[in-house]
Specification:
It is built from 12 helices and 9 strands. The strands form 3 sheets. It has a 5-stranded antiparallel sheet, sandwiched between helices. It has a two-stranded antiparallel sheet with strand order 6-9. Helix content is about 45%, strand content about 15%. It has helices spanning about 5-20, 70-80, 115-120, 125-145, 155-160, 165-185, 190-200, 245-250, 270-280, 285-310, 320-325, 330-345; strands at about 25-30, 35-45, 50-60, 90-95, 105, 210, 220-225, 225-230, 240. With about 350 residues, the chain is of the alpha+beta class. The mean pLDDT is about 90. Helix 8 crosses helix 10 (about 285-310) and helix 10 (about 285-310) packs antiparallel against helix 12.
Length: about 350
């Protein structure tokens, strides 16, 4: 969809919800991930109005990793109430509002999210030092969100039931196994099949059920020269084991070349675990955290396969998606290395 078409539809939507004439200025695409379209704009109400800085978060016409915009809207509201650093959400748009998909309108947060700048630019030296504690603080706040809140009822309904303490781990394995089988259509993936069996044999028990962000990592947080400014990209949120987010942060892909510092290229696992324990007020099980890191690498390999399959099928022809398919082999090497390390520590 052309920018002029998006602008006209967005102005019409905003005029309806605000019940007055408004103008959208400076509409421009924002750099982001492969799953959503983002546009920055100013909402103005007259010639003298400098405008509110907002962001339009728009689903593609048909998504790759589908999620519900209404659910994300409610999640961001709840997270803000719990003190999590998130953009304030204003309006939820429907398919009938002329933009071709459901969408959110929210505040534009100061800072940026480009991980390579965070890890390399001199201007972010202080940020690199304080960010691990900021990340631990945000995870602690997410962990404390009441999953009994009725606004999270749909998430809870999709969570696995029963008394098996390993059910959250097994549920996530099954979810991504199903996606892999649908994308690969019988193509052999021996390393990923081995990883799946290994994960199932050693699935950890969860200490409790909690809200899991699902994609909490460097690259999905905003920052400035002083620290963290916002936690983004909640579309994979679900109810599960809170250590899933801890393990996902240590996946090698999120170190962006700074491989000697396991947590987002910022610090070691052990340093972050200590910060997490202080922020949450609970002890962390290192074996479970390492298992979730292995799961995270396996999950990321599956996602790489899924994204490449979307490209190859012609539904979303995109160089970024194609390049992710090539990276599957890199993630498989890391998966094997982490399994060997885990087994060596427990024998």
């Amino acid at each position: 969809m052309e920018l002029a078409t998006i602008q006209r539809a967005l102005e019409g939507f905003l005029a309806r919800v605000l019940k007055r004439e408004v103008h959208v200025e400076g509409l421009a695409p924002l750099a982001g991930g492969a799953s959503r379209e983002m546009f920055a704009f100013r909402l103005c109400e007259g010639e003298a109005d400098s405008g509110s800085e907002l962001v339009l978060r728009l689903d593609p016409a048909s998504g790759r990793m589908q999620s519900d915009r209404g659910e994300e809207f409610r999640l961001l509201q709840i997270a803000a109430e719990a003190g999590v650093s998130v953009p304030r959400v204003h309006w939820l748009g429907e398919l009938s509002d002329g933009l071709g998909a459901r969408f959110l309108v929210m505040d534009r947060v100061r800072g940026e999210a480009i991980a390579r700048r965070l890890l390399r630019d001199d201007r972010y030296e202080t940020t690199r030092r304080v960010l691990p504690a900021c990340l631990a603080r945000e995870l602690a706040r997410i962990r404390r969100i009441d999953i009994g809140d009725q606004r999270l009822a749909a998430l809870c309904e999709r969570a696995p039931s029963g008394e098996d303490p390993t059910r959250f781990a097994r549920h996530e394995i099954e979810r991504y196994r199903t996606l892999l089988e649908a994308a690969d259509q019988g193509w052999p993936r021996p390393v990923l099949r081995f990883g799946e069996r290994w994960l199932l044999r050693r699935a950890p028990a969860a200490s409790r059920a909690a809200l899991v962000h699902g994609d909490f990592r460097v690259g999905n947080v905003m920052f400035d020269e002083h620290g963290l400014t916002a936690v983004l990209d909640w579309e994979l949120a679900h109810v599960g084991d809170p250590l899933e987010d801890v393990g996902w942060m240590t996946v090698r892909a999120w170190r962006f070349g700074c491989d000697d510092r396991a947590v987002g290229g910022l610090c070691s696992r052990e340093e972050f675990w200590a910060l997490y324990e202080r922020a949450c007020g609970v002890a962390l099980d290192p074996r479970a955290a390492r298992w979730w890191e292995i799961f995270g690498n396996w999950k990321w390999a599956v996602i790489c396969v899924l994204q490449a399959a979307s490209h190859k099928a012609g539904r979303f022809p995109n160089v970024e998606l194609a390049s992710l398919g090539r990276r599957t082999a890199e993630v498989e090497w890391e998966l094997i290395a982490r399994i060997e390390d885990y087994d060596a520590r427990t024998t």
